[in-house]
């Protein structure tokens, strides 16, 4: 499994292209503002886009859906609890001073324990509410894509509609911290980290003072 990482747009959202090198199939995770250039990688590497997956419904993680759906026909996947939020992406964006295309409706609603398949690789869906009600992480093959649940040294903001600090911390402790320490964490913003690094040093998880939220959307 090969992973392409892209930091894109004015909000520096991370998008990921997960490639099964045997079949040349790929998953696109969280195409946001300015993600259209990822289409060049898909073309140059002769990839077939198997699915577009959103870790949650905030506009900066879903507003590229329409472009890639139209270009590739790939199905759009999101947790059912964030499907309505995704449909409101254009309204969300206006509140932050951006104009975006309304995403198409999802083709498949994901739930805890579902699997997303790309070639010979499978990623398991972990439902991790807190940043949003339908936030998910995708785990498998020694990596986990966490959206805006967990960051290097921080956690996602919880002051937007549907957010809950208590729920987010519970999600992290129940679904992410049980993963092996060496699991590589690919977040929705900021640098990659590992479960072990965050378990031992993230101030939100260790109870140390001075923690401050990474204010993404």
Q: pLDDT below 50 for ≥5 consecutive residues: which ranges?
A: 209-215
The topology string of helices and strands comes to: EEEHEHHEHHEEEEEEEHEEHH
Oligomer: single chain
- Which class best fits the helix and strand makeup? alpha/beta
Number of helices: 8
The CATH first-level class comes to: Alpha Beta
Fourth CATH level, the homologous superfamily = Ribonuclease Z/Hydroxyacylglutathione hydrolase-like
Label the CATH architecture.
Answer: 4-Layer Sandwich
Q: What fraction of residues sit in β-strands?
A: 25-35%
Number of strands: 14
Can you offer a commentary on this structure?
With 217 residues, the chain is an alpha/beta fold. The chain contains eight helices and 14 strands. The strands form three sheets. Strands 1-2-3-4-5-6 form a six-stranded mixed sheet, with helices on one face. Strands 7-8-9-10-13-14 form a six-stranded mixed sheet. It has a two-stranded antiparallel sheet with strand order 11-12. Strand 11 and strand 12 form a beta hairpin.
Features:
14 strands; single chain; 6-stranded mixed β-sheet
